[in-house]
Amino acid sequence: MAEFLLTFSAKEILTKVISLAAEEFTLVLGFKGDLAQLHASFLKIQAMLLDVDHSHVRGVTLENWVKDLEDIAHKADDVLDEIGYEVLRRKVELRNQMKKKVKSFFSHNNPIAFRFKMAHKIKRINKSLLDLNDEAAGPIGLVARIQADATSQDVEVPDRETISKFYNDEKLIIGREEVVSDIVKTLTKSNDSAENYPPVLAIVGMAGLGKTTLAKSIFHESKIDKHFHVRIWVCVSTPFEVKTILRRILESLKSEEAAIQGKEKICNLIQKELKKKRYLLVLDDVWSEDPHKWEELKNCLSTVEDTRASSIIVTTRSDKVAKVMETLPRCDLRRLSDDECWLIMKDKAFSVGSAPMSKEQEIASKEIAKKCGGVPLMAKVC
């Protein structure tokens, strides 16, 4: 039994999860958190399999556990293949004009229905893996053991990498102009507080509402550029590793020093580079609700001398994350109106220089816009 168990490998599944998690295509963005959890669960299962020879449980109990694991692994593999295929199919389909998009929305392949379907399947698989983990750690008595040759890359949870630069479909901001203006005013107000730690403004909203795009719009505002001496963009995602975040801050400030490993040395260099400067730090896509991690990061930044009037923006889906980090009134992103969703669809399908939209296309596309639920991401891929 031990020999059979140890031949089980989730490596192929983990490779697929990592590949999809790194995919910037909008179809995948709605369930990246679920993919991250799936990745973490399979890593834990792999680590537990290394403890089979140490377990006192044998026979039917262990055999049934293995059978359940095999079934779940096959289901996960099928779901990941389905997602991978749909990503490729949609990339080709999205090159078509609005007429094709109108037809495809009402088919079984529409992206909104697909996202919900896949998210539901992955959540069920994650729940099954969680139950297996509990069973392994309980009645079966398996302990997660780290492989001797494991590297940091092997155990890294897949994350979403964002950059401060605009992608082509992010340059036109619809329905958020007033929000951008209000946040810019808040951040550029003179801050003569004696407290050296910068105020934190949280942008909160569900997946697809445009938190990252909004943060980019603020980041690139001319008033922001004039007010702050330094602007820094860090994609946090998962996990919230303080040393990694600090290294990325340093990389933005002084790229030639980014390879330094010691946390204390990194902090010292950041303090030197930011001393007596107003800075704007954007922490994009934060998931960790651990206040101790946040305090650890704050402790380093708060030692920088004379950075009054600096500010931090945090984007997150989680109300709990916002409560842990924010010191300013938060920005809760609203859903867009149907008309605003339609304008996004119109801009994407009918660029400058293309044939004008017919009345029939306008009526059909406005009907589709109503199905987007006020989510700009949906409008971009419909």
UniProtKB/TrEMBL annotation:
One of its GO terms (biological process) is defense response. Coiled coil: none annotated. Keywords: ATP-binding, Hydrolase, Nucleotide-binding, Plant defense, Repeat. The keyword Transmembrane helix does not apply. InterPro entries: AAA+_ATPase, NB-ARC, P-loop_NTPase, Rx_N. Pfam families: NB-ARC, Rx_N. Residues 197-339 form the AAA+ ATPase domain. Gene3D superfamilies: 1.20.5.4130, P-loop containing nucleotide triphosphate hydrolases. GO terms for molecular function: ADP binding; ATP binding; hydrolase activity. The keyword NAD does not apply. This is Putative P-loop containing nucleoside triphosphate hydrolase. It comes from Rosa chinensis.
